[in-house]
Write a structure and sequence with these properties.
The radius of gyration is 18 Å and the shape is globular. It has about 210 residues and is of the alpha+beta class. Helices cover about 15% and strands about 25% of the residues.
Length: about 210
């Protein structure tokens, strides 16, 4: 039993929950609840593995989002009483599955009970990067997002992203430089996959009660 203690004591938590300040396009600051879970191990090189899902709740509007690990939302905003989410695509397979969007992203609007995918031309131009990206580190959990993450906290955690976005803002797309024109370039690549375009986790048991 004593021989096992150093191993179990060093395990990092896999569940990460926090409340996050989000600045909307009109300057209003709201709070959303977010949660994610990581694989228990990133063997052989990392202490923890990749994402299992991404979850977001905005209780005042009864909004709940829970997506598959490859679809991590980077923008949440409310325009004219309607909530929108923007999700950047992570590679050529995702670009192909979603029709090679020019903005390298897919968009959703909350209908009041569920999320509906909309074309990029139907998404508000002011839908910009405003959700925390650096949610954790490959450590013992000390860097994990916990409690209330303020706007200032987010600036520190995502400082490299914000610097890149500020330099590319003139394009009208608040996008990450590494993703620029990605889907357009992917059109010339022959892609074969058994994956589907499914974005959301199964709806059973989803709620904002955590």
């Amino acid at each position: 039993m004593l021989l096992l203690l150093p191993l179990t004591a060093g395990c990092a938590p896999t569940d990460i929950e926090w409340t996050e300040e989000v600045k909307l396009h009109d300057g209003k600051v709201i709070q959303v609840k977010r949660r994610t879970e990581l694989s228990a191990t990133g063997f052989p090189t990392a202490k923890r593995g990749g994402y299992r899902y991404h979850e977001l709740c905005y209780v005042p509007m009864g909004i709940h989002w829970k997506s598959l690990p490859q679809y991590k939302p980077e923008a949440f905003d409310v325009f004219g009483g309607k909530a929108y989410v923007r999700v950047p695509l992570g590679g050529c397979t995702a670009c192909m599955l979603h029709g090679f969007p020019a903005t390298n992203s897919i968009y959703f609007v909350w209908s009041g009970s569920e999320w509906t995918k909309v074309d990029e031309t139907q998404a508000p131009e002011g839908l910009r990067f405003n959700l925390l990206s650096a949610t954790h580190g490959d450590d013992d959990g000390a860097f994990d997002a916990r409690g209330l993450i303020t706007l200032a906290d987010k600036r520190k955690r995502d400082s490299s992203i914000y610097r890149s976005l500020e330099r590319t803002a003139a394009r009208g797309l608040n996008e990450r430089r590494a993703l620029r024109d990605m889907c357009e370039k992917c059109k010339s690549i022959k892609i074969q996959t058994t994956s589907s375009a499914q974005v959301f986790m199964p709806s059973e048991g989803q709620s904002c009660r955590w």
